[in-house]
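Can you please make up a whole protein chain along with its backbone structure tokens because I've never seen that pairing?
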Amino acid sequence: MTTPYPFQGLGARAIHKFGGRALLADQPGLGKSFSSLLYLVRHWTENVPCVVVCPASVKWNWQREAHIHFGLRAEVLEGTRQKKGGWGIPDITVVNYDILGKRGGDNTGEGWLGYLKSLQPRLVIIDESQNLCDVRTLKTRWVQNLSERVPHVVCLSGTPLTNRPKELWATLNLLRPDLFGNQGRFHHKFCGPRKRHWGWTFDGATNLSELNTLLQNVMIRRRKAEVLSQ
């Protein structure tokens, strides 16, 4: 196994400290996928089977990283045909957002959601979780469905607050519904509510110090400058 940098080991320990439900938001280049796999390996019996949801462009990187750094085999799903029985249950299954669930219209693919839920995963890792910024999108609903009743969920994002706090709510609710369970309350408190003649808008940011305090219960973020000496 590849020896982790101290900050990567600390990231894995922090995920465990948060009960396996965390947003790992280190800056790009600090090895968020490595840290999440390190958490998986260090708490193996609690976390397998594991499902990784990621953009299509990096799903083969997850397979390589699991093999090169940890000697693990990850199965990568492709296409939209649901898997039938007889394949056994892989320790790690990697799927991209776009083929996770069923789409309407011309795309009749059933997606892999039913198969993945049948695995009864113990850990779901969601890479580039800023893709879940809108609770109305199919991608977000598919991930919510997959993660339902899964004990451990880890979200990875190098840019968790690129846009507006309102776009973070779906991720936070997925991880800690006990702290971030009411979308309306979150929007009115932290998202700069403004009353217009057609209704409310939530495109700003307010009470950020309080939000930062809450995020310390779920988010881990390090910048390159902080860990450069390691």
Observations:
- The chain has ten helices and nine strands.
- The beta strands are 21-24, 50-54, 74-76, 92-96, 123-127, 152-156, 194-196, 199-201, 219-220.
- The radius of gyration is 18 Å.
